[in-house]
Each structure stands twice: as structure tokens, then as C-alpha cells.
Design a protein that fits this description.
Strands 1-2-3-4-7-8-9-11-12-13 form a 10-stranded antiparallel beta barrel. It has a 3-stranded antiparallel sheet with strand order 5-6-14. The protein is built from 7 helices and 16 strands. Helix 1 (2-20) crosses helix 2, helix 5 (249-277) crosses helix 6 and helix 6 (293-304) packs antiparallel against helix 7 (310-324). The radius of gyration is 24 Å and the shape is globular. The protein has helices spanning 2-20, 22-49, 142-145, 188-191, 249-277, 293-304, 310-324; strands at residues 53-66, 77-90, 94-105, 108-121, 125-131, 134-139, 149-154, 160-171, 174-179, 182-185, 199-209, 212-225, 228-243, 279-281, 284-285, 289-290. A hairpin with a 2-residue loop joins strand 3 and strand 4. The protein has 2 domains: 2-40, no CATH class; 51-342, no CATH class. It has 343 residues and is of the alpha+beta class.
């Protein structure tokens, strides 16, 4: 009883001191805010890191609403595959996840280095798509970056695809990260058809779920006309990653063990170009993304098969990237999304 009484008395005296001392109260509130921020940061990290693993993936893509009388939405498309997602960098405030696609054909298993997602906490800049073959660094304001994470998505050859900024939140008991509006080049599924539209404006959302995670994309398919982005059709994309290891997971890890040194140098070379030029300009190609993508991927395969040394591969890759990115980005990133992105 005496212990309880002393505890209550101590709490009461502390509360009285806080009430009569603004400095103490402010310090207490700051401590509470700092604790809450740290807790949120750790939860964010846990949600990002939880995307690593081995998965059966389903890709659902459907054009839903035409925004023009002269355009008819195409039929929905469903595809899928097996992907292993690995954490290849984690500094605390930066997490890099590499996706590796594992496929089988006529009894043979092969690995395709797939997309990469880089997460950065409270970034000062984010690399964004601005025009055909052009990406530039966009400043992130102090108010926008506070408590936010950027996600930069890279193509199979580690060239950029799109970048956005958003916050992880808990709404209705569900965790999710939602980007701002982001411009991005056409995905291969559209580019190879040579459609009337030439880029997307999109909102990107990631959510953990029991046994995996989902990646939503709310895309407005658009075309540049006289400097203005004109909307053609709305598309809903839902990529579902379900935990699954009933495929040759070891093939993905074996490929990565053999090629990770090469791909690390490829990433460094892209980063060097982007840092020097404030962005990057490179010719796009419908089948592979960039005009050098096919060769950069082939080099990785040749290393994994023992046909090419790391040193020779890195020399060739550096030469390819430098040769294909000689032109300086011609545009600067807008401080806000294009007017039509609000559509």
C-alpha cells in the first residue's frame, strides 16, 4: 500500500511540475513526438523489408474508363510468374530491394533480373520522369519530405523508370504507402503495341497483406500534344505477391551470387551519370526499355554462365552507359505534377 501511495504521489508531483513549468511540459511533448516518430519509422522499415521473400506473382491489368469518344479500352490482361525479392542494401534510412524473375522453358530454368525498388527516408531529391527518355532530379521540399519515403523504381538494366514520394499510414487498420502523382514511360506490355498514348501519370500504392503484399497502380494513360498531357484512358493494375517457394528459388540466389558485383558497378555508373548531369537522357526502346538494356542483361547472363569475367563485363557496361547517355537532360522537373495529372 505504501509503495502504491508513493507511486501515485510521485506521478501527481510530476504532473504538477509539468503543469507549472512550460519548459518541462514542452520537453515532455517533444520527447513524446520523438518517440512516436521513431516508432513510425521502425514500422515503415518493417513494412518495406517485409516485401523481401519468394513469391508467386499475379499481374492484373485492365483499362477501365475511356476519357475520349474516339478510344475504346483494350481487353483486360492477366499474367504471372515467380519472383524472388532480395534486400541488397539497408543503411537504416535507405533500403534497396532487387526482384529476380525465375522462369522455366522446355525443362530449363532461367533467371531474369527484374525491376528494383529503392526506398529513402526523408529524401532531399527524387528522380522523376519528365519526357521521352528523360529523367531529372526533383527537389523535395522540407515540409513534403518530413516523415515521408521516396520510392524510386529502376528497370531491368538499372536505368530509371519512375520515382515518387509518400507516407506510410494506417487507415481502417490497414497499412499502406501511397505516392504522389508520378509520370512514367510506357510499360513493355503497352510499348510493343505502339499505342496512341505515350506515357502514364500514376498513383502507386504498396500494402502488406496476410502471406504477402500487393502493388496497386492507378494509371492515366496519356499523350503529349503541343506540350500538354492529354488523357486517353484509365487503367487499374493490381500486382499480387503471395509467399510461395514451390519453384527453383536456388536459381535466383545462384544468379545473384555470381552477378551482384557486376550489377553493383552498373548501378554506380548510372548514379555517376545522374549525379553529373542532374538526371539522365537515354533513348527508349519498346522491347527492352532502353537501347542498351538487352546487352547489359546479356552480359549478366554471360557472367553467370562463366563466359565473361567481372572485369571485362564492367568495362563494357561502363562504356555502354557512357555512350548512350551523352546528351544532357533538356528539361527540369516541375515543382508540381502537370495540370492533367489531377484528372
Amino acid at each position: 500500500m505504501n509503495i502504491k501511495l508513493k507511486t501515485r504521489l510521485g506521478a501527481a508531483l510530476f504532473a504538477l511540475a509539468m503543469a507549472t513549468s512550460p519548459a518541462l511540459a514542452d520537453a515532455g511533448q517533444q520527447q513524446m513526438r520523438a518517440t512516436a516518430t521513431q516508432s513510425s519509422f521502425e514500422q515503415d522499415r518493417a513494412d518495406i523489408l517485409a516485401m523481401a521473400g519468394d513469391y508467386k506473382v499475379r499481374f492484373d491489368m485492365m483499362e477501365t474508363t475511356s476519357w475520349r469518344d474516339d478510344y475504346e479500352p483494350i481487353k483486360a490482361k492477366i499474367s504471372g510468374g515467380h519472383e524472388s525479392v532480395r534486400v541488397i542494401k539497408d543503411t537504416g534510412r535507405e533500403i534497396v530491394l532487387q526482384h529476380l524473375l525465375v522462369a522455366e522453358h522446355e525443362g530449363e530454368t532461367f533467371v531474369i533480373k527484374h525491376w528494383r525498388q529503392d526506398w529513402a527516408y526523408e529524401p532531399a531529391k527524387v528522380l522523376v520522369y519528365t519526357d521521352a527518355g528523360t529523367w531529372v532530379n526533383k527537389d523535395v521540399s522540407p515540409s513534403e519530405r518530413q516523415g515521408s519515403w521516396s520510392q524510386t523504381v529502376w528497370q531491368v538494366d538499372d536505368s530509371p523508370r519512375y520515382g515518387g514520394v509518400g507516407k506510410w499510414q494506417t487507415v481502417n487498420g490497414l497499412r499502406s504507402w501511397t505516392s504522389d502523382w508520378t509520370a512514367r514511360p510506357l510499360a513493355r506490355r503497352d510499348a510493343v503495341r505502339h499505342p496512341v498514348y505515350d506515357h502514364y501519370q500514376a498513383i502507386n500504392r504498396h500494402q502488406p497483406m496476410p502471406g504477402g503484399w500487393i502493388h496497386w497502380q492507378d494509371n492515366v494513360k496519356m499523350k503529349w500534344v503541343d506540350g500538354k498531357a492529354v488523357p486517353y484512358v484509365q487503367e487499374s493494375v493490381l500486382n499480387t505477391y503471395k509467399k510461395f517457394d514451390g519453384y527453383t528459388v536456388s536459381a535466383a540466389d545462384d544468379y545473384w551470387a555470381k552477378t551482384k558485383a557486376y550489377w553493383a558497378e552498373v548501378r554506380k555508373e548510372w548514379d555517376k551519370v545522374i549525379a553529373e548531369k542532374g538526371g539522365v537522357t537515354i533513348e527508349e526502346e519498346a522491347q527492352t526499355g532502353t537501347v542498351i538494356s538487352a546487352r547489359l542483361l546479356d552480359i549478366g547472363t554471360e557472367i553467370s554462365e562463366g563466359k565473361l569475367t567481372d572485369a571485362a563485363a564492367i568495362r563494357e557496361a561502363r562504356s555502354l552507359i557512357q555512350g548512350a547517355t551523352g546528351k544532357k537532360p533538356v528539361k527540369t522537373a516541375a515543382t508540381k505534377s502537370p495540370e492533367s495529372a489531377e484528372y
